[in-house]
Write a structure and sequence with these properties.
The chain is an alpha/beta fold. 29% of the residues lie in helices and 14% in strands. It contains 13 helices and 16 strands. Helix 5 (200-213) packs across helix 12 and helix 8 (291-300) crosses helix 9 (324-337). The longest helix has 26 residues, at 402-427.
């Protein structure tokens, strides 16, 4: 049995003051000038450390305060209050909510799973992944020493085309050549960002983290720089140029390459496979209503890996777009019906915002996932999208230190990996490969609603 995969996390401090959910409101008007002010009795010395960050125009009270409410309760004239921070409410948007962003910040800083201490207080149904519940039936008899104890839970995933059967001659030798397969210890790769400031340092942080984690980062050829050559074994090179423009030495050192979908994509793959037979070829495809048919054609023509990509909200390109989990379910079941699902590796990405989305999307049929925006958030991105408009990034992501960024990404992945282990353990599953397509281990609100309410109003004869 191989050694257990473990991501070593450590505290990686923020560069900027965090935007907290609540803020301190301390009124001066009406102060009774008590001989011993409650501010001086603060256990955490919040008021003594008080200062203002001129860059962000934020006061340190909010980020240093530990929400013990001692000063709020102790002020005799009730001049100290706690309120919801308007800057917190303004973070992100309807999908990338302040709760998601702050949770990613915490994981990137500490490398631990966020725990509320008072149970789950969010919605039990809603759009997207919120309409899906996973089966935790095995949690009644958890392992005796936890996810890092004696129980072995594998999160290893294979990337590449598989043979449905092996053929041997009379002498017992293989008569078929197995296609190349790349094995990674975590079912996650880092994808191209939908938007960001100038990303030279960001890409180097991705690659440094990918190398430490044993996974891969997708890098466009147009953004490839000489500094990245040392990371070639962890790069999936996205071909956004002519194939002849790529240095043969680079192609020879790569383990995987990504081709954008087009009418000549299989011809390009065949050219690559003739010159570099050990190279795993990925076809990048925007997810759409026609994805099932397109993927079936690609599989029949010898495609190895399909990378399905939705937009940053997890929606496909369509007038009436489906969410990524719904389309993935359809694609997976279609390939199963055709008897070819095990031949192809499917990577899906877009709208993956939390660790729980990882397990849910694999249940819907993905082999592994690509993530993008959470990587930026880990490096303190506010999801303000000012960079899309050419406005300077408020947290200087364009000048991020790659080593610091890699540390934050490792912490984030440590938190996500631990949560995946918790889910697998609670389901009684000891290998993430077995989770793929296990839709019987989940409940879908849409299906339950249809089953429960479809017969209402009908008369039984």
């Amino acid at each position: 049995m191989p050694p257990k995969y473990h991501i070593h996390a450590g505290q990686v401090a923020n560069r900027f003051q965090s935007i907290t959910k609540s803020g301190v409101i301390a009124w001066e008007e009406g102060c009774l000038k008590c001989p011993r002010c409650v501010k001086k009795d603060c256990v955490y010395k919040v008021y003594e450390k008080r200062g203002i960050d001129p860059r962000q125009m934020l006061e340190s009270l909010d980020s240093v305060c530990k929400d013990c409410f001692r000063c709020v309760q102790g002020c005799p004239n009730k001049l100290i209050q706690k309120g919801l921070n308007p800057s917190y409410k303004a973070l992100g948007d309807h999908y990338w909510t302040p709760e998601i962003i702050s949770g990613l910040w915490y994981q990137a800083e500490a490398g631990r799973i966020p725990v509320s201490g008072a149970g789950y207080g969010g919605p039990f149904s809603g759009p997207g992944f919120d309409a899906m519940w996973t089966d935790m039936s095995e949690i009644v008899r958890p392992t005796r020493d936890g996810i890092h104890g004696r129980e072995y839970i594998s999160t290893t995933t294979d990337i590449g085309r598989k043979l449905m059967a092996l053929e041997f001659d009379q002498a017992g030798s293989l008569t078929v050549s197995p296609p190349p397969v790349v094995e990674i210890p975590l079912p996650i790769i880092f994808d191209i960002l939908p938007w960001s400031p100038p990303r030279k340092g960001i890409n180097l942080a991705f690659l440094e983290a990918a190398k430490a984690l044993g996974t891969f980062a997708v890098i466009s050829h147009s953004e490839f720089t000489p500094e990245m050559k040392e990371y070639l074994s962890n790069i999936i090179l996205h071909v956004d140029c002519q194939l002849s423009d790529i240095d043969p030495a680079i192609l020879g050192a790569l383990r995987m390459i990504e081709l954008p979908f087009g009418k000549d994509v299989m011809a390009t793959q065949n050219v690559l496979k003739q010159q570099y037979p050990g190279l795993v070829t990925i076809i990048r495809l925007d997810i759409s209503p026609a994805s099932s048919k397109t993927i079936m054609q690609l599989v029949s023509q010898g495609a190895e890996v399909i990378h399905l990509v939705a937009d940053e909200y997890g929606l496909e390109k369509s007038d009436k777009p489906l969410f990524i989990k719904e389309r993935m379910k359809e694609i997976h079941l279609h390939l199963v019906e055709q008897g070819v699902r095990d031949q192809i590796t499917i990577i899906s990405g877009g709208g993956i915002a939390m660790a729980e989305h990882l397990a849910k999307q694999i249940i819907c049929g993905s082999d592994l996932l690509s993530i993008d925006i959470p990587l930026l958030v880990a490096m303190e991105c506010r999801v303000c999208r000012r960079c899309k408009e050419g406005i300077a990034c408020p947290v200087d992501l364009d000048s991020v230190d790659p080593k610091w960024g890699a540390g934050r990404l490792k912490n984030l992945m440590a938190g996500w990996h631990n949560q995946l282990l918790e889910i697998l353990g609670a389901m009684g599953i000891r290998e993430v490969r077995r989770l793929r397509g296990e839709m019987g281990r989940a409940m879908f609100f849409e299906d339950l609603e249809k089953d429960i309410f479809a017969t209402l109003g009908r008369r039984s004869l």
